[in-house]
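Quality-control log, excerpt.
Job 1 of 2 completed; input and output follow.
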Amino acid sequence: MDGDRKELSIACGPSGRNGTAALTVRLGDDVLAAENVNLLEPKKRGEFANRLCDGRPGVDPKAVEAELLKLAADLAKRPGRPEADPSGRPDPATLLATMPEAVRAEASAMLEAPDLMQRIVADIGLLGVAGEKELAATIYLVGVSRLLELPLASIVQGPTSTGKSYVIKKVASLFPAEAVVIATQLTPQALFYMKPGSLVHRFVVVGERSRAQDDETADATRALREMLSEGRLSKAIPVKMGDRLETKMIEQDGPIAYVESTTLVRVFSEDANRCILLATDERPEQTRRIIKSLAASYAKGPGADPAAVLNRHRALQRMLQTFPVAVPYAERLGEAIDEHRCEARRAFPQIVSLIQASALLHQRQRKVDRAGCLLADPDDYNLARHLLAVPIARQLGGRVSDGAVRFLDRLRAWFSAGDEFTTADAKKHETQSKSSVYGWVNELHDAGLLEKVAEHRGNSPAKYRLTAESADPDAAAVLPPVEKVCE
């Protein structure tokens, strides 16, 4: 050691069964702190490290964090200590401490990189996702939002074979096992009967939504809606106790971040307005990107080591500390949101949550105020605005999806003003699936871009005609520019 440099040391004294330990921190011979800290709670460790390093230029936050992680791992291995998580999930810090030092160093450097989001998208590309950069980035931030008080939920829409499930699967693979719940199908009662605590701050990834649009299906998603809205579930059920029945409450705590996919253009409004509606790119040029990527992989064999990419991101996620996130410009943003649609009441918290998720991901590049809140900066709003321009415009501006806009352009090439046509007539020209055509026609009709001139009767299909209305291409106008919000 340099003679002018004092060495930091942290001594761990007696510890309680809940993970709280008596810590004494010294810098050379000087005692900097002596207090009880719950080493098994990332938030408590983070708060302690922040207090310790505040105003002390000789104390390296990375060195403090590394020492606390080692102590947490040692404490977790002690016999007789009950699990800190009631569901049996191991502490992320304990798992992080067992990962190779080189992997932790990579993840740490990535968290501090100014182009963090671009690196994440590039890594998703290394896993085989061609194009779909905005979609992949948004799903990743939805996953990060699991650590927030109000996480995000999303539904990825798109025609069959456009890669909805593939993108979701690849993004979800970047999250460690203790952070994610992957279920191909989620039955109505599944959430209630999971082990208590197993959904708290988890990223729940579900497969394809049922195509049925009836009352039974709506009832099946009721528990999901309650979890997304309230952050917890409760249900009273009769239980036989001997010769009598007693009512027992089943409770399941959240909150959860959530993503699923669907080929449906129309989703139950009760579900849709709780979720950010995202869409895959169905254009021929995107198909060309996918084929080119597949061809390259077949010709050259495996490229980047997927294990290296996965380990780097799983370490990164385990490094993220939970913080309350303040958005200093939230009031100005709220003033700029159009209040004439009731959907704004749900859309505004979604915008703020994506800003908070970005800040949480970039936490090593953001400031923390005296109250311990992480402060979102203008870059977080800029990213949220870029990713949410079209989804929020669909919710608040009456804009149709990009797929429907492109379908409208094709309809105008196939049919002249005043021509009457059916969905079957349109399908004769269209390369996408029949269900996509039906969905887009309904979406365009709802938006006033198609006029229904004859209702469906018996064997006679409904007939439509193009209107003079045009789809608003300026989705970004719904969310104000960063200069207006972040002075």
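Job 2 of 2 completed; input and output follow.
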Amino acid sequence: MRPTLAFLHPELVSAVLAEARRILAEVGVDVQGAALRSRVLDAGLRPDAACRRVLFPDAVVDRALACVPSSFWLHDRYGQPRAELGSGRTHFVPGSSGLRVVDHRTGVTRNALTADFRAYVRVAGDLPGIDYLATAFSTADVPAEIADAWRLFLVLTESRAPVVTGAFTEHGVPRMAAMLRLFRRDAADLAARPMAIFTVTPTGSFRYGDDSCQNLLDCAEAGIPIEIVPVTLMGLIAPVTPVGAAVFHAADALAGIVMAQLVRPGLPVLWGAAPAAFHMRLATSQMSAVEAMRVAVMSTELGRALGIPTQAYLAFSSSKLVDAQSGAETAMGAVLAALSGVDQVAGPGMLDELLAFSLPKLVLDAELCLQARHLVRDVIPMDDLPTTDLVRELLAEGQLLVADQTLAHWPAELHLPGPVIDRDTPEHWVTAGSLDTAARAALEVERRIAAWEPVDVPEPAVVAQLRCLVGEGLPAGVALPD
């Protein structure tokens, strides 16, 4: 039996989803993108009396939900299956919204550069506990017009892993889709063997802005999986109560998923969540607050009830450093995610409420994610019932260290963490330099960077085509970094 966690009774799950559907049917959503609005109205949605909002009749919602895949595979750069979302396994990926990095050598928080992103891909690419990559942060040494495509370029040329990404502008998806198609036979092959998930975020207050609408439409037409990730601000633009926040979140998520299915029935989607609690004294939005984590778990229950694979922002911290707070918030989020069965968790490596990325935190978080996943493995009897023979062996030998059962099962049953986690004796810890967690994590980053060797580098012609696609968005006289 697999340990599980649930905050909502089945009757309450049904009530929350019913209330979200009532909001969509009676109040509707402000779909600001003209092209998407036209498409979904043609597909059966209808405008309200003032023609300002789009209403979602139950029959159309039912038809769209019937098309959503209950699971789908992400593939690597060469088309090999890498991760099945909806299978019951929790996949941990780095957060994907950083604006700065915390330099692992100096501890200074600064703007990120291309060299920082390359270091990130090289550390994260084969990091146990991290299942695939995200375009984790933007680099300040390229113009904003191409920042989304540039970080995708760096992932595609430095790693073969799938990636969670997204476009920053209304017209960013087509260029990035063209980059992805260079690794498939054609557009149909990319849709059949997707290698990326794009994030689409409603703007709150039951509204999809121009950028989100166009990105959703472009991804759906290209067959690229999307995650609909409402940012539910409890106490500010969503109810402060968990059930009320869950209703608002569900309405936003359901609207995006229905619109995606109306554009392209069968498009793989993730029911995402990025709830935050508004801090009434500091006037800040805290996504790592325990109340926000609870709503993220509740969101997973709603998505699972609909048979839709889920996503949530968990396993990160609002702390500015790799410290006790960052470890506690990340560990709590990782355990909650694993227990509740979130299919894809975004957050490892992130500090300062997802604004800053830290490589030492990433290697620490990867260990915490491994432990969370180890915690929720199925609990099944092996050869330990009845225990009479083991009792006799213990009494005869004085220990079970070399017992047949120990030798057969300890590699799977005992999780041995890497060097970031301290399990040593006090004497050995002092001999090794009395390093704290942050220092050990920084050393592990340096070790991984030094040990990295390029593998599976794309053909030079493909790299040239990628650079050409990225460069099309450059202002005149500006060159790409090497």
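Post-run check on job 2. The mean pLDDT is 95.
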